[in-house]
């Protein structure tokens, strides 16, 4: 079994913690919409998934450090490592929202913060100083926006941890700064991505599922902003920037909403019009996360802006995002089972 993990983790997909992101966002959505048992079930799956992914990542670091760090400095694969940060942040938020406890989430906040610093500066430094840089068409994709998602996941978790304690003001300040930085990172990255989409040759295989992060990144920005608005209503720091904060939050939600029809049409174009074969790809979790996050974010936005009519949108999106998650989860487990059977047969 040890040899199996050693073999299979060499080329472990760098963005696999997106499974935790998608499951956590869906669990939070279920809780907000009153589906308590579904939320708890998804939390249980996420506890197992998060633990297993760290074990596999540990195997990869121990047995294949060269491949690990090579991928980290790779334009196409390196951004996937931000899912370690985002997955940890979303999982911490899920634990607070579903269970009400903060002890474990406080440790996860510390872990996510350390990972954020290490991965953020290691990745961007590596791709900047790399000599054999790819062109824009080969070097950038939607996964780069997980840098913004990771930043906003820390903002969300910080707000949820702030409470009324002595460090509440500092946590709210940090969360506000992270919200603004996450928004800035989105703007920096989405511009070359949009240029890539509109002005360069673009075939069906170029439309990777991670382009759904174009929407997911501003969806989690909406969630972070909405929580700052509602939970920081008595914090003079937040009150002082409230009009600006509301403007950026609403802009994020409108942008996320604008992206959805385009991404749906591009998905139809790739698989229905151009008939590209539909095979399992771990990047599909980059589609599941944005749908679930948009559901939770819109629910919170409706409360923050006092527009309850908007909550009809989460009511529609939740069954869609749940169905997508179920399909991808079953598909992933079928794929992993096939890998295990194939590896066992090869050794015989």
**Element order: H for helix, E for strand:** HHHHHHHHHHHHHH
Helix content: over 70%
Low-pLDDT segments, ≥5 res? none
With helices defined by DSSP (H or I, 4 residues minimum), what is the helix count? 14
Major sheet details: none
What is the gist of this entry?
By secondary structure, this protein is an all-alpha fold.
Description:
The chain has helices at residues 2-8, 18-32, 36-63, 65-72, 82-99, 103-129, 136-139, 146-162, 168-199, 213-231, 236-240, 242-273, 285-304, 312-347. It is globular. The longest helix is centred in the last third of the chain and has 36 residues, at 312-347. It has 14 helices and no strands. It is 77% helix and 0% strand. α2 runs antiparallel to α3 (36-63), α2 packs parallel to α13 and α2 packs antiparallel against α14 (312-347). The two termini are 14 Å apart. By secondary structure, it is mainly alpha-helical. The model has no long low-confidence stretch (mean pLDDT 94).
